[in-house]
Amino acid sequence: MTTLDFSPLFRSMIGFDRLAASLENAYRTEAGGYPPYNVELQDDNRYCITMAVAGFSNDDLTIELKENILTVGGERAEENGERRFLYRGIANRSFERKFQLADYVRVIDARLQDGLLHIDLIREMPEAMKPRKIAIRTANEERVVGSLNDANQQRAAA
């Protein structure tokens, strides 16, 4: 088994400790499985997960978000033994699929339509995380101590 070494990345990336664990987990997880799904990038901040869940009703499906892990599950009631199949090609099994979401990604909608479960997601960056200009002071200017908001209020008042 190959082990990935992320130490070169951490020389310039601060606070990405969970990134290595997530990448190693994704590396170990095998692709495919049941049910099939798509992950669509709709624009820079909007995504849609579409899962093929034919035969499942709203009551059979669960969607849960906990600690940035989106879990989609399906459980169908057991069929009684009254039916006899000559051939059974339609899966009637339960499933659980997990998706690791980045920080600030949240679920905005989930809908079941024509046997497809659509889960819409959006990334909303808080104002504090958006790029902002940092003022450069000259050597003669006094340094303002306090929060950034206090400094901005003092400059606005001046």
From TrEMBL:
Keywords, in A-Z order: Stress response
Report the residue ranges that make up the SHSP domain in this protein: 28-139
Pfam family example for this protein? HSP20
Transmembrane regions: none
SUPFAM superfamilies named among the record's database cross-references: HSP20-like chaperones
InterPro entries cross-referenced by the UniProt entry = A-crystallin/Hsp20_dom (IPR002068), ACD_IbpA/B (IPR037913), HSP20-like_chaperone (IPR008978)
Family according to the record: Belongs to the small heat shock protein (HSP20) family.
List the protein's name. Hsp20 family protein
Q: Report the source organism.
A: Thiospirillum jenense
